[in-house]
Amino acid sequence: MTDSEHPSRVGTPLHFRDVVIEVMHKIKHEDHSEAHQIFRDSAGHKPKGVLPQTVNPDEETVPGIQHPGSTGVIYCSDRAIANGFSYANSHAWSNLGQGAPEVGPIPDAPPRPTSIPVPEDSLEYAPTTGVKALREAVANLYNVTYRKDKKSKYTYENVCIVPGGRAGLSRVASVISDVYCSYQIPDYTAYDQVLGAFRRLVPIPTALSPDNQYKLDINQTKKDILSQGLSVILASNPRNPTGQVIAGNDLKTLVDLSRESTTLILDEFYSWYIYPENEQEWGNSISSASYIEDVDKDSVIIINGLTKNWRLPGWRVCWVIGPKNLVTALSQSGSFLDGGANHPLQLAAIPLLDPEHCQKEKIALQKHFKMKRDHVLKRLEKLGMKVEVPPTSTFYIWLNLAHLPAPINNGLTFFEELLKEKTIVIPGIFFDINPAHRRNLFHSPCHHFVRISFGPPLADLDKGLDAMGRVLRKAKKEGMKGFGHSYKKSLDGTGESI
């Protein structure tokens, strides 16, 4: 705000609204930020461990039930709906928040599925471990892609089919005993709910630094295993939201830890989204399966599925791969957690896992999404928002807003301002895996970030980038007086603040 824009500089008394706006631009605590208070007022997001009660009465939906809180995508979708978004009018919006790739045809890729056979036996329940033929297809794909030179091979007994990645995580978490579980910040938002719900997993965080390209310090991890008694390491790889990847000797060293009384759980949903600079490397993908010595002895658990790589998020057909005794345990947990994946869609998925088919999909996907990544990075740089650590994998950009003027220099406020422009991003605080929810949000290492997805089609990406440009031009032209307030709390405007 310039001197001429500031009411007190021209001898005009400050009205109450102006005082509030002035305070908003100097805030350093969430209690004084409208965007942050809307977040805290959403069920399940109030800070815990502050008051002596064990259940927040405002969140107790029925006696004894405590609201778990929403994941980032769900919260952001709800806020967008309060601002007029609906799936009927979604074409008018740019959704750069949804963690899903575009599902339509892309250049040089095999044709998209257009119909699903439904044989009579598929009307029955499928086994909780999944259809045997699909389990065999998954095992074969991993053996062909990552284990050609390995004596130990996966079989169908090493594969459990699950109805989505979250279901896979939940099944695994439900069969883990009381242990210390290491995870990194930032990482996938659903880990927060998993670590909060399955309380036998005692969460031990490690903050990753942009100064080190968000790399996991393997040597420090080894020390933590010895000093803190870590039994489980949970991580996404390639990494959501930073777009980085643990590969080569680093990944091998990490897998080696599984032979030292530590279980490694790797979420590998973005394993095809690798963007090589050398054209000869098109079609290469990443998996810890490459470095496992014995598939039944190395305690490595891989979670993956059709959602991202095959660009079929609506199918909810995914898998967990690991030692045989893990799969038998997951069968039991699936019987009371989710009941198993969709039977007809499991059958329809089998031909999609043919290795030759997958290679064609992989190359087309990598070329198309690399083009979109480069396009978005160039446009952000033109807007003065150069990305410090560009993604080498996934379809996410971890964008630091710290250089912007307050209050749009934090993820929640920037998110709310973009909602006014019919654009959705995900505030960085959702990737600060913090099951206790005690931290002042302004102290989060993810506070000044948003995650931008370049998963949607190119036209949607440009629409969202245009919206960011409008916000930044408004800030430059009009100053900051119009930001940080007047956010809708509901679709009809009830509860709309000053």
UniProtKB/TrEMBL annotation:
Residues 95-467 form the Aminotransferase class I/classII large domain. The keyword Zinc-finger does not apply. InterPro entries: Aminotransferase_I/II_large, AspAT/PAT-like, PyrdxlP-dep_Trfase, PyrdxlP-dep_Trfase_major. GO terms for biological process: amino acid metabolic process. SUPFAM superfamilies: PLP-dependent transferases. Keywords: Aminotransferase, Pyridoxal phosphate, Transferase. Pfam families: Aminotran_1_2. Its cofactor is pyridoxal 5'-phosphate. The keyword Transferase applies. One of its GO terms (molecular function) is pyridoxal phosphate binding. Belongs to the class-I pyridoxal-phosphate-dependent aminotransferase family. This is PLP-dependent transferase. It comes from Rickenella mellea. The lineage of its organism: Eukaryota, Fungi, Dikarya, Basidiomycota, Agaricomycotina.
